[in-house]
Amino acid sequence: MAVGATPVMQTGISHGDAGYKGLVQNPFLLFLSCFASIGGVLYGYDQGVISGVLVMNNFAKQFPTLAHDATLQGWMVSVLTLGAMFGALANGPIADRLSRRWSILLANVLFLIGSIIQAASVNVPMVFIGRFVAGLAVGQLSMVVPLYISELAPPHLRGGLVALQQLGITVGIMVAFWFNFGTQHIGGTGDGQSPVAWRLPLALQCLFSLILAGGTFFLPYTPRWLMMQGLDREDEALATLARLRRVAPSDPRVADEILQIKASALFDNETTAAMFPGVTSSSRLSLERYKSLFTVRHLNRRLLTACLLQLIQQFTGINAIIYYAPQIFRKIGLTGSSVDLLATGVIGIINFLCTIPPPSLLIVGGVGMGISQLIVATLYAVYNSSWASHSAAGWATAVFVWMYICNFAFSIGCVNWVIPAEIFPLGVRSQAVGVAIGVNWLSNFCVALITPRMLDSIEFGTFYFYLAFCVFLVVWVYFFLPETKGVPIEEMDRVFGGHQGEQDRVRMENIAIQLGVGSKSGGAESKKDGQVEQVESV
Ligand code: BGC
Fold it and tell me: What is a GO molecular function of this protein (predicted)?
């Protein structure tokens, strides 16, 4: 997900407006990014579908051991995230080798296999294997979709387009919740419920996957990946870029952008040579890059920040709710005529709607999440044994679960994907982002595993436990997390130490001069219509 603060090469060409206006001006790009974000939909759907399935009568009949064993349930839910962690970590080299485009196809093939096994399950091992295989694919997609979009997008639209992945996730969760709500009625919600009630939502995900898989045959390669293949494919990179921008290959904006991409590829090579002198074998290089993340002081500080953010995101308890909402709602007395799944459906809608505005302050979101968790936990503690006679308390608790979701969605729900990419120098960025996403999945795994047991044993204590992480988030962000938005990489050095950013800036300046688009003064002099635009390297 190369969307971070990289040394900039300034040129005189304006590429258009940023923000929503810019997106509307680029409908083809917007379409491609939305299409690739179906990967996010698969991610969200697979996460969301299981909560409703778990409380369906017929599912419990088919798999009684699962239905009555909180530990086994935790493993079943979390095995997907375990697969996803491996998928995310393994996909970097796959996406470099096969291309971003074909690695999306590969992920979809795995996803289809995993989904078919899940939908056709006749015993518990089949459920586990299906979820693990689908998890591998979801992890791959969580890494490659943002990468693909960021390499298609011009720098001024990159952040907004990459955020589509999170929007895709929330769409997936929402569709899964409401689909469950509908299909549970097949054969009735009671004893007569048909197996189709839970098999159908598990099978439906194949449809999204087939659409995305079919589309990969029409998706373009990214110009950046083509450029990485060497001189042979430079012309193809130019033609692809022109097609993406809907202009002729001779258009000065395309010529300028391809120069940026070339500069960035050169920059990448030079940075690698400077960081790891004498290392030529690609596997050794890859190993050295990972090693440096742990051994170079300023890099491991950055890594700690990126990984802590992922860990906290998960331990604020978002997936305790996404995975187990219907069970929580049942416990607090929202039982009559599928109210549990209805209340869960509302979560899906709130999560989606609150993701649409641009992400806001982490602190505000953290405080909102903390207050909501505190109220949920306290109501849970007070009415623990008397929900049936206090339905108003049950509904008040549900409202604060929804408030929690809203605060999550507009803050840490999106920001966690962006910050890791902003704080690392390019030479180790993809490795660092891969490790950070791996930590996200690992933490997700732990939350999925421990939540059902906690709900059974410490009950309301579960929410106090997650509240502690909301408090930690606020304190950590306030005192320790540096502002990264719009901060140049050389400023990052001041925060984390080292001189990497400063060295990178000088290197990029030299490359710009080499390519004839910059000067030593720290920026390009070529101005058009009096405008100078800062262009981030890809
Ligand atoms: C998280 C997921 C979560 C989703 C909810 C994402 O940012 O990484 O674990 O389920 O948000 O919208």
Answer: carbohydrate:proton symporter activity
Residue in 318, 349, 369, 410 to alter for ligand 1 test, most ligand atoms within 8 A of Cβ = 318
CA dihedral 334, 167, 171, 96 (to 10 degrees): -130
How far apart are the C-alpha atoms of 205 and 184, rounded to whole Å? 16
413 touches ligand 1 (CB under 6 Å): yes
115 lines ligand 1 (CB under 6 A): no
CA of 209 to the centre of ligand 1 (A): 19
Q: Which residue owns the Cα nearest ligand 1 atom 2?
A: 319
Mean pLDDT lowest for which of 17-26, 37-46, 236-245, 518-527? 518-527
For the stretch 26-73, pLDDT in tens is 889 999 999 999 999 999 999 889 888 988 999 999 999 888 888 898
Distance separating alpha carbons of residues 21 and 33, to the nearest angstrom:
16
Q: What is the pLDDT of residue 3?
A: 39
Q: What are phi and psi of 256, to 5 degrees?
A: -65, -45
Mean model confidence pLDDT for the chain? 85
Fold match flag (17-219 vs 280-481): yes
| Distance between Cα 427 and ligand 1 center (Å) | 28
Q: In CATH, which of 1.10.1160.10, 1.20.1440.20, 1.20.1250.20, 3.90.1150.10 is domain 17-219? A: 1.20.1250.20
234 burial class (0-12, 13-18, 19+ CB within 10 angstroms)? middle
pTM reported for the whole predicted model: 0.85
Among 319, 412, 415, 419, residue to substitute to test ligand 1 (most atoms within 8 Å of Cβ):
319
Which range has the top average pLDDT, 207-221, 251-265, 416-430, 506-520?
Answer: 207-221
Cα–Cα distance, 513 to 342 (Å, whole number): 61
Ligand 1 centroid to Cα of residue 489, in Å, is 27
- The identity of residue 215, as a single letter, is G
Q: Give 326-355 pLDDT, tens digit per residue.
A: 889 988 888 765 788 888 899 999 999 999
Residue type, 478: Y
> Which superfamily, per CATH, for 280-481?
MFS general substrate transporter like domains (1.20.1250.20)
SS3 state at 390? coil
Ligand 1 pocket, 310 CB below 6 A?
no
Structure confidence by residue, pLDDT tens digits, 19-34: 677 788 888 999 999 9
pLDDT tens column, 457-479: 999 999 999 999 999 999 999 98
317 lines ligand 1 (CB under 6 A): no
Is the C-beta atom of 444 inside 6 A of ligand 1? yes
**Max alpha carbon distance in the chain (Å)?**
76
Segments making up each domain of the chain, as ranges = 17-219, 224-266, 280-481, 484-538
